[in-house]
Write a structure and sequence with these properties.
Elements (H helix, E strand, L loop, with lengths): L2 E6 H6 L3 H7 L3 E5 L11 H8 L3 E5 L1 E3 L6 E3 L6 E4 L4 H15 L5 E5 L13 E4 L12 E2 L18 E4 L9 H5 L9 E2 L1
Antiparallel strand pairs: 1-7, 1-8, 2-3, 2-6, 3-10, 4-5, 9-11
Length: 190
């Protein structure tokens, strides 16, 4: 079976140097649903994303509402850029943070078996799509359920803000309700 990988965002944050933690605590980043995903422009997923783009500003470090732990809140698939810095600085900071969260010391791999179920806390972990499966000739089918959670809050009290799109809820977004008959319910392939 193919593996999935998760990273401990709290450990990644805690093992940054003190000056980098202090800087990260002050930063905000734009997140876009599948910001860095490369898909054919005519794919159904791309069309769905275009119909209801999910764009938000999040703190780069979020405080877990139950434990008080700080976690790096960046993800290579969603974080498009850091705000209030130059594009070059943003790219370099994101490269540093992405390298940090993908270090083997903070990640775990789960090898799936038929019938397995995995749960994780998106407030302290991130699912990382495996990048080394090209040699495996198998179709991966994933059924994912996301529990509506709290609004991310940074160390300075900044609360995430929606820039574009409707918030994710148990309801289908308005724009997609209009086209619901045209959309096919298919599993997400990753």
């Amino acid at each position: 079976m193919t593996p999935s990988e998760w990273t401990n965002l709290v450990a990644a944050y805690e093992h940054l140097s003190a000056p980098l933690r202090a800087l990260a605590d002050t930063l905000k980043a734009e997140h876009r649903f599948h910001a860095r995903l490369r898909l054919p422009s005519n794919s159904k997923l791309v069309q769905r994303i275009a119909a209801n783009p999910q764009v938000s500003i999040h703190p780069v470090v979020r405080v877990h509402p139950e434990t008080g732990e700080r976690a790096l809140f960046v993800n290579p698939g969603f974080t498009s850029h850091i705000l209030d810095v130059s594009p070059q600085e943003s790219d370099l900071l994101l490269e540093l943070f992405f390298n940090q969260i993908t270090k083997p010391a903070y990640t775990t791999r789960f090898r799936w078996n038929n019938g397995d179920i995995a749960f994780w806390d998106n407030r302290a972990t991130a699912h990382l799509a495996p990048q080394d499966l090209d040699h495996i000739e198998v179709e991966r089918v994933l059924y994912r359920t996301t529990i509506t959670g709290d609004i991310p809050v940074g160390p300075d009290g900044f609360r995430s803000q929606i820039v574009e799109g409707e918030p994710l809820t148990s309801e289908l977004p308005t724009v997609l309700k209009k086209n619901a008959k045209k959309l096919e319910a298919k599993p997400v392939l990753s």
